[in-house]
Amino acid sequence: MPELPEVESARLVVERSALRRTIADVDDNDTYECRPHAPGEIRDALVGRQLVDAHRRGKSMWCETSDDGPRLGIHLGMSGRILVSPPTRDDEDGEEDEGGDYQGSGPARGSGTRKPEWYRFTLRFEDGGALRLFDKRRLGRVRLDPDIEALGPDAGEIGRDEFRERVGRGTAPLKARLLDQGTVAGIGNLLADEVLWQSHLSPQRPSGELTTDELDELRRELRKAIRSALRKGGVHTGEVIAHRGTGRHCPRCGTEMTRATVGGRTTWWCPEEQV
DNA sequence: ACACGTGTTATGCG
DNA sequence: TCGCATAACACGTG
Q1: Is pLDDT larger for residue A23 or for residue A136?
Q2: Is the CB atom of residue A179 positioned under 7 angstroms from any atom of strand B?
Q3: Is the same domain home to A205 and A232?
Q4: Which bases in strand B are touched by protein, i.e. have an atom under 7 Å from a CB?
Q5: Contact (CB, 8 A) for A192 and A183
Q6: pTM
Q7: Which residue range(s) make up the domain with A128?
Q8: Is the CB of A16 under 7 A from strand B?
Q9: What 3-state DSSP class applies to A76?
Q10: H-type helices in A125-234, by residue range?
Q11: Which nucleotide's C1' atom has the smallest distance to the CA of A76?
Q12: Which nucleotide lies nearest residue A169, CA to C1'?
């Protein structure tokens, strides 16, 4: 469930630890993760180059490469994580620096097992270290020159007027609009539920019927939730997230939470407060 | 064993 | 053609 905050954490890891290291080899043999590239295509484009910058918009990140090389796009999908290991020093096998830990909410969540086949993509550096994409579910994606322009503005940076204009239109349910990456980029299922709860808005409200005040409030709560998730380590730390579930209650008013599929995703909200 | 979750993309419909 | 809805994808988890 990497959403915007988790991807930003991963980007920071790349920026901090993977730039300016020469790529010696690339394992791009996972044809699903690297689609539509054929095996070897990404390797041929990157060997000998360096990553020189790491960017992000919404849930998509990409790196510029040296000598006017192609951009390397990485999407974490639903279970992807970026792991970067330092240069090997005297045959020492270094600990991996990790970005975006989103492994569920409980302390004892996730076994931590790392099967080798879950490493879907690897950049091996000349210094002996590597950048890897670790992805159990295999819905992540690596590709050259990704189409970033298809995404809407980043959810954490979109301005007030543009937010009003882009979100406050159409007849689809508000939550579906928020999940549409072409409208605003970076909001996933959990972040959407959190922000709607914080804003006292029903996920089912037709997005075009929101007032300007409601849209402004929604944007404020969105920025707040993103900052908070970045600080606390993931969207699962949101206030209402632990209260999504059968028999759970709204942490503000105690009303039993309601469940429905909205925008194709399981949605939980407080039927009393979110209208 | 089997349903569920989940971001993206493809497909379908009015 | 556009906006919206739904299915498909992969596969670990409960």
Answers
A1: A23
A2: yes
A3: yes
A4: 4-9
A5: no
A6: 0.91
A7: 4-148
A8: no
A9: coil
A10: 160-167, 174-179, 189-198, 212-232
A11: B7
A12: C3
On whether both A32 and A131 belong to a single domain, the answer is yes
CB-based contact A200:A275 (threshold 8 Å): yes
- Cβ neighbours of residue A117 closer than 8 Å, sequence gap 6 or more: none
Same domain? For A168 and A84 the reply is: no
**For the segment A25-78, what is each residue's pLDDT rounded down to a tens digit?**
999 998 888 988 889 999 999 999 999 999 999 999 999 999 999 999 999 988
| A134 part of a folded domain | yes
Asked if residue A142 and residue A8 are part of one domain, the reply reads yes
Q: Is the CB of A59 under 7 A from strand B?
A: yes
Say how many domains are in chain A: 2
Strand B contacted by A58 CB (< 7 A):
yes
Instruction: Give the neighbor-by-neighbor strand order of the sheet with A72-75.
Output: A51-57, A60-65, A72-75, A141-144
Strand B proximal to A267 Cβ, under 7 A: no
The CATH number of residue A141's host domain is 3.20.190.10
Both tokens of A145, joined, read: 């020159």
Residues 109-148 of A with CB under 7 A from strand B: 137, 139, 141
Which residue lies nearest C2, CA-to-C1' measured?
A: A170
CB A10 within 8 A of CB A100: yes
Segment A168-207, tens digit of pLDDT: 999 999 999 999 999 999 999 999 999 999 999 999 999 9
A42 and A139 part of one domain = yes
Is A184 within 8 Å of A155 (Cβ atoms)? yes
A117 and A237 in a single domain? The answer is no
User: Does any domain span residue A38?
Assistant: yes
Chain C nucleotides near the protein (CB, 7 A): 3-14
